[in-house]
Amino acid sequence: MNTKILRNLAFTIFTCYATLAVSASPHWSHDEQATWWAIQDPTQNVPLNYPFGECGIGKHQSPIDLGAATINDSKPLSKLAALYGTDTAPVFFNSGHGVQVNTSTDYKGALMIGEESFPLIQFHFHEPSEHVVKGKNFPAELHYVHINEDGRIIVLAVAIDIGDENPIFGTILENTPHEENGKNASAGIQINPAQLLPADLDPANLDYYTIAGSLTTPPCSEGVQWYLLPKVITVSAAQLEQLKGFYTNNAREAKDLNGRSLLSSQ
Ligand SMILES: [Zn+2]
C-alpha cells in the first residue's frame, strides 16, 4: 500500500472515530450533575440511549467524603511511585469542563503500583475539590490520570490549598486557551508533572489512601482505582482566581460509600 492510500485510510478511520465519539457523548455540564444519568442520546436505541446511566445507578462512584469512610491500615499495600519526568511537548487543553494538560505521545512518565506501570495520559484541575473531608471542600484538586494498555484507569488525586504561589501551575494557566476545546500544542514549554506533587512526600515512595471508584465526570465509568495523597500542594489566592476564570464549580458532589472502605499505606 502506498503512503497516499495509507493516509486516506487513516483519515477515514479518524473521521469515523470522531463521528462515533461525538454521537456517543451528548453535552453535559456540572450544573446538571444530579441528572447526568437521565441525559439521552437520541442517536442510540434502548438501553444505549442513556449513555451516562452509571452516574445514577453505580454503587462505587467517586468522589467520596473521606471523613465518612472507615480507614483500614492493616492490609499490606503496594509501593506507589510517581516516575513522571519532564515532558518536552505537553499539550495545554481546555477540555470544555476544566483546565487540562495532555502528555505528548512519546512521554514516558508513569505511575508504578508495585511492579505495574500506568502511563500518565493527562492531568487536570477541579475547583473546588471533589473529595471532601466531613463535608468540607479544599479550594481545588489535581487529578493525574493514568491508563495502561489493558484500559485500566488509575487516578492520583492531590488536594490544593491556598498559600504560596505555584510556578508550574502558573505556567499551565498562562498557556491554556480560554476557548472551549482549545488546544495549545506549540508552546515550546517543558513541564515536569512531578513538580506538582507535595514537596514533603517522596515521589518514589508515596504515602496514600486508596479506594475503588469511578470517573467523576460522565460516563462515570467504574473500575477506576483512586490514590489520594495525605499532603496538599498550594497555589496563591490570585492563581485560584485565575483558575476560576476558566471554570468554577466544576466538581462533582461526594457519593455514597456503599460499604467501601479506604485503605491506608501508613
Ligand atoms: Zn478529575
Short key terms for the protein model shown above:
13-stranded mixed β-sheet; disordered N terminus; 2 domains; alpha+beta; 266 residues; single chain; Carbonic Anhydrase II; 16% helix
Explain the overall architecture.
This protein is an alpha+beta fold. The protein has two domains: 1-52; 60-264, Roll (Carbonic Anhydrase II). 16% of the residues lie in helices and 26% in strands. It has four helices and 13 strands. Strands 1, 2, 3, 4, 5, 6, 7, 8, 9, 10, 11, 12 and 13 form a 13-stranded mixed β-sheet that branches. A hairpin with a 4-residue loop joins strand 3 (91-94) and strand 4. The longest helix has 21 residues, at 3-23. The protein is globular. The termini are far apart. The model is unreliable at 1-23 (pLDDT under 50). The structure holds zinc ion.
Count of helix runs: 4
The N- to C-terminal Cα distance equals: 57 Å
**Tally of structural domains:** 2
For the record, the CATH class of the largest domain is Alpha Beta
Q: Tell me how many strands there are.
A: 13
CATH architecture field of the largest domain:
Roll
- Helix residue percentage: 10-25%
User: Topology as H/E string?
Assistant: HHEEEEEEEEHEEEEHE
Arithmetic mean pLDDT = 91
Shape: globular
The CATH H-level homologous superfamily of the largest domain: Alpha carbonic anhydrase
Approximately what portion of the residues adopt beta-strand conformation? 25-35%
- How would you classify the helix and strand content by structural class? alpha+beta
